[in-house]
Amino acid sequence: MKDSFFADENGFYGDFGGAYIPEILYKCVEDLRRAYLPIMESDEFKAEYRALLRDYVGRPSPLYHARRMSDKYGIKLYLKREDLNHTGAHKINNTVGQILLARKMGKSRIIAETGAGQHGVATATVCALMGMECEVFMGKTDVERQHTNVERMRMLGAKVHPVTTGNMTLSDACSEAIRDWCCHPSDTFYIVGSTMGPHPYPDIVARMQSIISEEIKWQLQEKEGRDYPDCLVACIGGGSNAAGTVYHYVDDSRVRIVLAEAGGSGIDSGRTAATIHRGEPGILHGSKMLVMQTSDGQIEEAFTISAGLDYPGVGPMHCNMAAKGRSEVYAVNDDEAVLAGYELTRMEGIIPAIESAHAVAALGKVTFGPGDVVVLTVSGRGDKDVETYLANKDMAGEYGKF
Amino acid sequence: MNKINELFAGRGDRKLLSIYFCAGCPSAESTADVIRTLERRGIDMIEVGIPFSDPLADGPVIQAAGTVALRNGMTLERLFGQLEEIKDEVSVPLVMMGYLNVIMHHGIERFFRRCSETGVSGAIIPDLPFADYLADVKPTADRYGIRVIMMITPETSEERVRFIDSNTDGFIYMVSSAGITGAQSSFDDAKQRYFRRIDAMNLRNPRMIGFGISNRQTLESAQANAAGAIIGSKFVTLLNETGNADDAMDRLYEDLRR
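^ inputs. structure came back:
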């Protein structure tokens, strides 16, 4: 039998995944494991979820033929415009779905972790929409570097807890969210933002984001007369927009999968978030995955210009796909991402999130066949990153001279 | 016979007191002194915390202790070396408490072999799933005569409590509350009902109650419904404040009378 790239019944993707959680969380994770598929496959859920995606999120997101960039790389490049979603990124596809799940399970309080603040904003948004209490855990470093998103969350009625442990970024925010969950296991629903955490979260998030590849299929059919590309490109931190981009194509060997992780200052610099390159199997935040760690099994800090990719682990689905050679993973350094962000801005008039800019930079690292149809997911928009782009104009070559 | 089993078999009606400390805090070389002092001051069982960078089940006090320990250069290998040096002097059972990543990275087999070589009698791994415990960890630990202690909480169903009880040996670590480690000022009626409910189940394993014990009320209500109590954060705080295990024990005994 062919190995599947999806979770087995115990939440394993090959050697990765599972649910490594303290006993206090066993019951609520088990309740969720039993409930999620029947709920997500029910007609009632599907109708509500699809209606919200259409009327509230603004889906389908366009599949845009980027002509100038296509010419530059000698390919036919389509951009999957998740940046045009309500709240500015793919994150809301997942929060809209998970909050419906939370309501159907009778939970009254929502918690979430956030790095760049996109998932926090997307969670605070759906909590406002549903009138539910919302608390977001965010590393203090990120609170400072993503201040606008913090204010958005507060305006939406969420309580933002700055986390001051570790290097005060996404990983620490995850730990603190899990600790809060341990203290309120019965009434609280943890809306996990990426394809990480204990099973069934990686599967839930991948399914919620799979709307991306579902749309790519019919949009390509309309535009290209075939429902698959030659290559898919996405950035990867925890792995949610990458999972959504590849979901309907993982078993289609005609489709190459190219992922861009955050190289930071370089994978050998000691300041990197390139987990697939640098990680070893380990347990972090409830899941077995590739984790950057010391020889003593202590989790190392991740470093990257991109708050949304600043995580020392990577979701189990992606660990397995990389291990089995299904995905090609490139490390994109800070300067390469900044340059690529400017390039997309100047050539297509789209300022991408610094996370998405990593995917754009991967275009320069991959050898494509002439005229290959390539779909690249622009996971979010760059409004939140304007200061970062401006502060790093020196990395942008000619584009930075203004 | 495993020292943990001996302790519970021989205690009669006496209520036990177990103390947790984080190895490497306050200083990298304090392990031997803390263990010797706790034994001399009448502590029945000692939990030796293995510091971890991301301790999900721990509150601020033990998180901070772990950070200090790691900064002091504490590692699992170094800890085993320290324990090996004092193994002939220690007669109370030692129980290692640490997260799965560190133990897995060390190697499960190697971890339990080192436990048996250094006089350790048990291990508590808060994020070890029960299925992994049954399939891999317990068979390995059994080969080396080490007891893997599993936890139950107020959220654990009666059926699962029975399942855990019938598949473990040594004692059951009963978590007092839905939460993480850290001192509490009192155990309310709901917690005491939970203690009595589990007590009335007549489990085959003895139980120790931990998380939140810091004074007379919490100690007595734990000890009334179990074989004994485990104190962690409270002791770690006192050890940090006094910088000395003897002084910390003076303060602890004082506070436990209040």
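Chain B touches chain A at residues 52-59, 63, 67, 70, 75-77, 99-106, 126-132, 150-153, 155-157, 160, 175, 178-180 (CB under 8 Å). Residues 15-253 of chain B form a domain with the TIM Barrel fold (CATH 3.20.20.70).
thumbs up if we can close this ticket
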